[in-house]
Amino acid sequence: MKKHRWAIPVVLGVAGLIASAVAGPASASPLSGDCAAGSSMYVVAHQDDTLFFTNPQLAHDVGSKMCVTTVFVTAGDAGKGNAYATSREKGAEAGYSVLSGVSNSWTYTNTTIGGSTLRRATLDENPRVTLTYLRLPDGGFPDGLGYPVTGDQSIRKLWTGAQSTITAVDGSATYTRDTLIASLLALMNEAKPSVIATQNTQGSYGGPDHPDHLTTAFFTRQAQLAYAAPHVLRSYQGYDVVGKPANVGGGDLLGKEAAYYAYTPYDSNTCGTPAACAADGSDQWLRRQYTTNNSISGNLAELATVTSSSQNTASGQSAANVADGVIGGYPADQYAEWATIGGAAGSWVQMSLPSASTVSRVTLYDRPNPNDNVLSGTLAFSDGSVVAVGALPNDGSAFGVSFPARSTTSVRFTINSVSSTTLNVGLSEFQLWQAMSPSPTTLAGNAATASGADWTGQDLSVGRYVAVDSGTAGHIEAQIANAGTGRLKAAVYSDIAGSPGTLLAQTSELSDYAAGINTLSLTSGVDLTVGTAYWIAIWSDSPSLRVLADPGGNGRYVAVPYGAWPTTMPGTSTNGHLYNLGLKP
Which InterPro entries match (predicted)? Predict the structure, then answer.
């Protein structure tokens, strides 16, 4: 499953296939702050990665009139030069134009971020869609160690410390590990996304996925730890999705294929046609989309300074590897682990944080080789408290340790006993988790900021919202513009391919409603998962009901008589409202 081993493409006339299924032209730039429906940022390695691995979610974001910013970290040059890389950029632009249902016309600007000059493309007829190109050298598959033509540079080597700097293939910018993280953070602060989507943050080198995919995910995860705005980090599985059931079909599949086959004429290393992609198996990626992790809180270890009793730097097994986000070690990938030099009981590794943080859990991963094994240890915090740790699994799998939350500036893990076969004790990974803050008042829904209202009386009205935290919702709040008499109720539906799915829960009825917030109790709680979309519905038999709402949302309605909630939502009509509805604990 190598990205660059496919046939010469054939141009297909696909641009019209999904134009009717997505939003029409927008009228605002994502960088102007006019993103009433929200903002998402996709950070990926290559120009076709969003089309392969994060679509149809990408299409849903574009279709819901969200501002969508995509950052391509590498040039995708595959060692073939700048002309091939820029052609792939044109392919990405063609694919995004199809997703937006508008013509392939873009405006190009150079923007300075963190002292580096970046190329940016803005879609003329839907300027909520922008693409930003960092153009760093492609690391190549399967090792990700670079190509001679670009000096064997790669983002994997930058991440692991094997090289100290990396220069864009067009010479536009040079980065260190820290300045690349800072530049990604600056892009996040500029776009203000509530959802940051990237590639597999849970993967490890040496598997079927591209090393550039994984490294891009590691850099993105690191940058978002310092991004202060509330957000969800969404991680997408890569080439290894082929081991899972196909889950993209119907209109989503048609749209995904249309966008991808608009890209292929610009990439001479693609399969190019449906027949060719079916023959080489790459159409399996079109038929699948899987996330690997949706998280709000981060691993604080990635912000820490790491020290240890000893470390084998000569073999690349330094203490810093316990905080590199890569789970693995000798014999598959010795650069992913920390190993002492002859260390046994009494060896230690310490995380020192830049400021006091509240923590409540660590996850430890032993070295995965069969000989070196930690049998017991102790966690010591800067406040003087300690927590005992038992034997770590000898296969290098996760060992979680939970404890009452405490504020600390450092955590030291001291190894108290080891197996008789241990030669050089160490760890693959040492994750330090920030204590989760209390659940937000609203688990999913719109903030109470709408200035307009929509006449929803005698229509079943519904809006789509992404959960900002996991939890059990017991209530729905609706902000009503006017008092009135009549029956009012609300419900929660699942999301299926960007449309209302099945009924999950419903509220009891109100016989009257007041102006302002009306709280309706769910007859049974509904468990929400962070990063997952849900539809909140409201229904009344009053012809005068008005719900606070702003334009620019993904609201829909069904003109059906008031009655029993349908088990599955019937065909809906779009009205573009962003309703003030919220799911509460």
Answer: DUF7402 (IPR055826), Galactose-bd-like_sf (IPR008979), GlcNAc_PI_deacetylase-related (IPR003737), LmbE-like_dom_sf (IPR024078)
Give backbone dihedrals phi and psi of 25, rounded to 5 degrees, phi first: -55, 140
pLDDT (tens digit, 9 = 90+) per residue, 278-337?
998 889 999 999 887 655 445 788 678 999 999 999 998 999 989 876 778 898 888 889
Give CA separation, 119 vs 68, 86, 226, 312, 483, in Å. Answer: 16, 11, 24, 41, 52
Is domain 38-295 in CATH 3.40.50.10320, yes or no?
yes
Could you tell me the two tokens for 492?
A: 């929660």
Helix (H, G, I), strand (E, B) or coil at 54: coil
Could you state, in order of their start, the residue ranges of all structural domains in the chain? 38-295, 300-434, 444-584
Q: Which two tokens stand for residue 508?
A: 């009891």
- pLDDT of 416: 97
Structure tokens at 234: 């969404």
Amino acid, single-letter form, for residue 306: V
Distance separating alpha carbons of residues 71 and 53, to the nearest angstrom? 15
Report d(CA 435, CA 509) in Å as an integer. 38
Task: Output the furthest CA–CA distance in the chain (Å, rounded).
Answer: 79
Q: pLDDT tens digit string along 462-506?
A: 998 887 666 778 889 888 888 888 899 999 999 888 889 999 999
As a dihedral over the C-alpha atoms of residue 315, residue 321, residue 324, residue 328, rounded to 10 degrees, the angle is 70
Question: Which residue is it, tokens 């694919």?
Answer: 95
Query: Angle at the Cα of 156 (from 369 to 41), degrees rounded to 5?
Result: 115
Which residue carries 């449906």 as its tokens?
A: 274
- Quick one: CA dihedral 477, 481, 483, 485, positive or negative? negative
Contact 443, 561 (CB under 8 A): no
At the second CATH level, the architecture of 444-584 is Sandwich (2.60)
Nearest to 70 by CA among 229, 253, 259, 211: 259
Tokens of 214: 């994984």
Instruction: Give how far Cα 69 sits from Cα of 59, 91, 566, Å.
Output: 13, 16, 36
Token pair listed for 555? 């609201």
CATH fold match for the domains 300-434 and 444-584: yes
Task: Say if pTM beats, i.e. exceeds, 0.90.
Answer: no
For 300-434, which CATH class? mainly beta
Residues 473, 539: contact at Cβ < 8 Å?
A: no
Question: Model confidence at 379, in pLDDT bands (50, 70, 90)?
Answer: very high
Pairing of strands 556-558, 444-445: unpaired
Beta-strand runs (E) in 218-337: 232-236, 291-295, 305-308
Could you tell me if 556 and 572 are in contact, meaning their C-beta atoms sit under 8 angstroms apart?
yes
Tens digits of residue pLDDT in 57-81? 899 888 877 899 999 999 999 999 9
CA distance 186 to 284: 35
DSSP 347-378: -EEEEEEEEEEEEEEEEEEE-SSSS--EEEEE
Residue 123's beta-bridge partner residues?
Answer: 106
Amino acid found at 6: W
Task: Tell me if 269 sits within 8 A of 4, measured CB to CB.
Answer: yes
SS3 416: strand
